[in-house]
Amino acid sequence: MRVSVFRRAHFNAAHRLHNPNWSDQQNRAYYGKCNNPNYHGHNYELEVRVTGEVDPETGYLIDLGKLKKIIEEQVEERFDHKNLNLDTEEFSELIPSAEHICYVIFNILREHLDDKYELGVRLYETPRNYVEYPAG
Amino acid sequence: MRVSVFRRAHFNAAHRLHNPNWSDQQNRAYYGKCNNPNYHGHNYELEVRVTGEVDPETGYLIDLGKLKKIIEEQVEERFDHKNLNLDTEEFSELIPSAEHICYVIFNILREHLDDKYELGVRLYETPRNYVEYPAG
Amino acid sequence: MRVSVFRRAHFNAAHRLHNPNWSDQQNRAYYGKCNNPNYHGHNYELEVRVTGEVDPETGYLIDLGKLKKIIEEQVEERFDHKNLNLDTEEFSELIPSAEHICYVIFNILREHLDDKYELGVRLYETPRNYVEYPAG
Amino acid sequence: MRVSVFRRAHFNAAHRLHNPNWSDQQNRAYYGKCNNPNYHGHNYELEVRVTGEVDPETGYLIDLGKLKKIIEEQVEERFDHKNLNLDTEEFSELIPSAEHICYVIFNILREHLDDKYELGVRLYETPRNYVEYPAG
Amino acid sequence: MRVSVFRRAHFNAAHRLHNPNWSDQQNRAYYGKCNNPNYHGHNYELEVRVTGEVDPETGYLIDLGKLKKIIEEQVEERFDHKNLNLDTEEFSELIPSAEHICYVIFNILREHLDDKYELGVRLYETPRNYVEYPAG
Amino acid sequence: MRVSVFRRAHFNAAHRLHNPNWSDQQNRAYYGKCNNPNYHGHNYELEVRVTGEVDPETGYLIDLGKLKKIIEEQVEERFDHKNLNLDTEEFSELIPSAEHICYVIFNILREHLDDKYELGVRLYETPRNYVEYPAG
Prior knowledge:
Six copies of one chain form a homohexamer. With 136 residues, chain A is an alpha+beta fold. In chain A, 32% of the residues lie in helices and 32% in strands. Chain A has a single domain (2-133), classed as 6-pyruvoyl tetrahydropterin synthase/QueD (Tetrahydropterin Synthase, Chain A). Chain A has a five-stranded mixed sheet. The longest helix of chain A is centred in the middle third of the chain and has 16 residues, at 64-79. The relative contact order of chain A is 0.21. The model of chain A has no long low-confidence stretch (mean pLDDT 97). Chains in contact: A-B, A-D, A-F, B-C, B-D, C-E, C-F, D-E, E-F.
């Protein structure tokens, strides 16, 4: 009985899209309003998908309380109410695009989940723009 | 022209997570609040996905009115406003976790759908916790 | 600067609508599926509205962190994952209709809020059925 | 770093399901209310999924501003506030079922996207009925 | 114990905004795309609010099953999958703007509700545009 | 025929809650994570309510296309992808709490609306926290 279980979480953060190897003009032309030097922000909504075999003794794929705690400790505490560019190690060098944030969160959670589980992450930057890693 | 068509439905039910082979203490420790002997409940939201070839004469993969009726008769009438543990055969022995409920609904619908269709079921226990069977 | 501030919360519970002064037949006829003797349940979604004057020094009407904590301690801990009829004092005698639950939550919160605030409560029993007290 | 990026859009349109090779009676029997000769309508909600490799220099899979513009120019301007049967070439002969509309939009967008991207389209006819092409 | 109870419903319809006393040019200039002579359509979402005193014997303001049935018979059957301009008496002369549709639905429901109840209607033409009558 | 018409819009912004008359320690104690000196951000969702008499000739209370344009030009262009504290005149001195942002938007829109209309503004800072001005 192979199932996927999903858990949603969220965090609010500020960010700026800027490539330090480009001129300011290039950055403005490419990233538009997202290049604002004073930052802007989002309510990020996160969907974590864990896939594997249900344990017939418990009826659970994974204890959702534990998964919730991992997401809180590893993702929410790290990024919530933060400036991704200035306050986090992960994006001190990496451009905090939705694609990169989704990929970084995948890698953080991957380390804290048993290898028997497959993992997927979807990150909503707004209700109209979102990203999934790995691609389905 | 191979497409997936989705139909949503819902039902409200009470349940309790409890493994009769364990002590009460073990059950409380593992299932926490979900082990409440007097039950708690949810608004279950169901998403049924049917996949196959579109009939070029009708433009339909499947008549959604018929699919809606199958879901109403086979799932909603069976589980809506019920205590899953006490009022249903399906969960008289099987622990009614979201994983198991999703799997049971898949099997019920599978019997009532033509073999030419592929089937998938997603069950939302809350807007933040949900399950998909089979895994994508 | 008089504003209303809203905070949402939720809890999952089982309940049964049953008037002990009526016959079983009367109860079934009036409450229909909601009279199921084995209970059914809901994901209750709660919207708390607090109205008053903004403090110009802080920019806040009320510290939402404190309001969130009051709701968690006074409403969620009391009702979440409970059987309203069996596990709560509030509904040992009172029929736990959405109207009554909304009214009870209003009275609980009213006691824990400073008198300078006006209070309103909206309770969603399902996304299609909800109640507001006091009436607008 | 292979990801999927999603963008949502919407348009409002009128349509009628009717097969000109059938009698009026057959059409009414098969399509029911959707066969109304005077049309009915929907708020169509569109989810476009683009899959490929993230460009490490920009952190983007695709410039979402450009994708948004393609969807506006190629889908919204073509179908928004239109009668699909009478006002569009695409459905002058093809029955405008949700399945067909989804397939037509896929083909329109496919022509305007670089071949290096994989494409998927989900079309919501109502919040409870939707279609995905190609099937996942 | 004075409360408001809300019930949601929906219907899909086609319409056209056109004032027969104006020239075609005036109509196009004023109503824009909504003046399309071939109609366009919407998923109308309806929120009905009923206000009054809770009956202490039942815990109900109004039997929501009965309210649901009134809405189905009086509103959904009348307008669902219809062309409001061509298929309904109500809008044969009256321009079917969201404001007017909301007002018409209020008057239909008012006739079928006991005078002891206060009534309010909110009509969503899209998730971003909606109307309430009477004004709060 | 007095109705309210609603229009939704949104913008994404960064902000910081900080009272310059307090010590850093007082600010951190009072505003918690919202006092982060490097800012954090939100997807602000705005609901504008306009109330008045429907024009019987047009069926409109107000041309929603014009209202949409006023909101875009006066609110979205001013605040979208901005740092409210650093990039806007409105919050160079005023603490950008949700209460104050809602009040400021009300005053901006009030200047651009005909006096015959009553105005209300609701601002969602997150889907669980929101503010309304003036209070209902």
